[in-house]
């Protein structure tokens, strides 16, 4: 019997052990669940690590417990892997294991938590939460990157949704959200909150206050030390609590007292001082030792262990009147009620010169007896009384045999704690009782995880209500045990060498807080009914806000948010908004909400609107909702989701129209009808078709919608940009032809002969090609036409007959009442332009004049501007088909008489006549369709390389950047004829009324133009409206930020422009081929601002420097008031603010000097004759430093014949009178003028470098403009008093800040943590 029982017991134990062993070997499955039922939780994850044998039922139970939903009210679907296309919910009633259901061990299995049957999951009531400790995940240490632990309803939210993150778990506590490196603050606040005495006192304070970090400092983004924060916060609280009941609260709770003494070992004389403390810093590892203290008790003994002062450290004894050996140490006189111990884990490694963290193991007891560390004998001594006789309670001296009062000075200041009695008997009695009752209990461990460079703080705190330990890790609060506290001791199992802490755990205790075990003083937390009235009101207000947030969250959870679009029925613009509608609202109610949201009350009746399913990306109407007006939006949209794969369109109709039914599976086609006679493209008509329809059936469908015959119909599909496919195979399906969800087709149905022409040669193809490449631009013209003087200058070089462009645009003179209409003026101007052009064609013997093109209106625009007489339209079209500008330069090269010039003065405002016309002006442009050279993208600031480097190469480098970089190629070829006469490009313009705020009197054109036109041809077409030739106005492109950039590459097309771009025209000479626009700055080496802008100039390729100087002279005189001669100034290279190479008069641009668009150059006025004569010379700027006077002299130029250091010293000696052997020099640093503080120049510069030439390290002076400081090495530095130095420092700081140079006098220091009272400092934060 016994043996059988024994065998059965062994068998049962073996079975259990095998089960445990198999469970340990069983693979685990990592499940990551994303809650997609709400926009607030879409970025949140729940992580479960389950055994592979876990049933699916258990998976759903665990998920429900984690997210706080009622099980059975949600679905789980796959979110990745092979099952990602399977949207079927996982069967939660299945008996399968998660392994059999397709979950993969060792991989991340992503699941989506979704609505069940269109209904949102039900939230689990709070009382239904489990309270079983075994079900509660305990957590201690830094949070993982994903998942949530510590409480069942916790989520890690990236958006800091406080209401969801800070929900109470069964612990009954709410954490604090980490608001960017505030974990150190959170852990301290949580510790203070869990301190009954501190919390109760704070509640009883009837005065509210704020403690705020300075906003303009970077404290928010820096992690600070929690012990430093504790000190600063206590100081701030003491300041705030002055003259209140809590004025001495910090001292009463946290302040202790110790004696700092020195005792002579020869005579027994002792000097001492009493200090107070708020915390005790304990060393982890003694200085120079490889072994750390094993426990807090051992570190406390070391703290009060005295040291012997001997040898060179001997102490001067006042009694012995000599240096003697002495004992120096600390004695604890009084311990506070709340004892704070700081474990000094941060140290400095003098080997690596870096801060390090000591992760050595240091134990600490749950109960700490401090009676062994207090000095009762010191309390028995009458020395304290003898010291108070002199009026200094906390400092004095005495002898073991005889009372002494040798210390009469009061160096130390008592910080608020005094002894309760002056009676020695009372002190003795009190000291004895205190020693017997100094038992402290641990209740807070503030833990640091990380390194000396940064890490994470959290707190382990014991509640005095239930003696349970909790982990307060930012917003996560969970229960822990005493074993978890022991894990914060730190250390490793290995030997404790000096670097052993580097391999130890980085998570360890940093601050310990103990409370004195005293039944009389130990307080309990105030109950709710004991709260002061202001606290009760605050709690009530918080509860109301919480209820309000809860209701709002419930509304948010049931609100569908989806993009809403609407084509405004009158403005014809697509509007976009977000529709927010409760899931229980019907479709009819949603239409009313959308109707008001889009502000259509005055545009269309409500019954003319409906909501349809819409794909904005493809511009596709997916389906309509006929007969579902009473269906809830939650069902129509598939539930409340964070994002939808579709949008909604608020569709409108006219009262006489009916809505079309959109069925799923249909494709939408926008049909444009093309009229070859009027060369117009009608606005689109939308029809619905099926992909399996043939082209023949599709034509019949279009015929019904457009009432055009299908037999003669040509259908062109625009699949993408410039891909126009003619659908000429009637039996092919639309799918085979490339139709998709949303399509665009052009149709033409007429009896014209164009049907029999090859498609690519047909009129239809050309019209559609033009339509596809035409863009709409808005052109702002100059506010005033150019003056007569300017116009005379423009045309003075002209020759030939008196015909000119202005004659074609002449204003009709006469009384106001007899003036012709603007239509007649435009027609007359056009006729003159036509006859002038035909004449020029004949003179130029151009054989292309017989060609005709289609250049009329490409689209019917419903506007009053187009309501013109049909005969005028016919004449305009006839003009467009005949006109061709073959030699535009002839328009500018005609010789003009004085009468013509005078006539211009009265007709210079021709563009105002044209703009006031109700006609639109259609003309043609002739451009070259051959390949054109493109810009090479050279840096606009790059200028010539060093002259000396060129000289060393032995040959000159030539860059032809006229057409590639600057883009200033001429509009005409070498024969003077217009480039490109093979293809016409469309151009149409009409007046445009700009919006208010565009400038009073500002004239605008709306231009439809083929974007393949070149900028050169585009400018030629703008000539009649600007009133000057294209070479005398500039084109600026206006970007969204209203920034303007000049377009100068005349050979480039307008392909980079898009619809509705704005262009500004400004008067001024445009650049010709080989010309560059140059900004000229004056170099003022001895002025506070050495760089001053003068003017814009134009330099040309092949021009010498002297020629450019000659052209600058009149401009400098007229625009800048500088009356100079050509030999009184020089030009030199400018790089940012640095002066560089001096350009010699014989240098040629593009040969000796590399030049680019938007080039910048310095103009320097000379004091005398130019000393720079050849490229082998070197010009440097020297400045003498006078240390005895603490000042710098002005700049002086030194011209060297070579790069010899010896020659430089000779020149410096010559201009300064300093003996050659005493010359010391240094190269300036930074941007010209190389400013430096006179307090730093004497020692900070690299004086007297050991080199023989200037073009080697460390000088590298290879070009003109280098700054050289020099001094007399025998001159002594002026000695400054502290006042003089401070005054000089202020002046230098002010001077250098004005010039944009930063001055620093000390290495960067760590900013101390600051807390301001009531949220605002008393001084300007910018001064910190």
Give start-end ranges of low-pLDDT stretches: 20-24, 127-166, 215-220, 379-425, 493-502, 785-830, 836-982, 1302-1310, 1320-1328
The counted number of beta strands is: 51
Percent helix: 10-25%
> How many separate helices?
29
Structural Rg: 45 Å
Please, what is the average pLDDT?
A: 75
Structural class: alpha+beta
> How far from one another are the termini?
88 Å
Beta fraction of the residues? 15-25%
Quick one: overall form? flat
Give a short account of the largest sheet. 8 strands, mixed
Features:
single chain; 1328 residues; alpha+beta; seven-stranded mixed β-sheet; cysteine-type deubiquitinase activity; protease; coiled coil
Characterization of this structure:
- The chain is α+β, with helices and mostly antiparallel strands and 1328 residues long.
- It is built from 29 helices and 51 strands.
- Strands 8, 13, 16, 18, 19, 20, 21 and 22 form an eight-stranded mixed beta sheet that branches. It has a seven-stranded mixed beta sheet with strand order 35-36-37-34-40-38-39.
- A hairpin with a 2-residue loop joins β43 and β44.
- α20 runs parallel beside α21.
- It is flat.
- The two termini are 88 Å apart.
- 30% of the residues are buried.
- The C terminus is likely disordered.
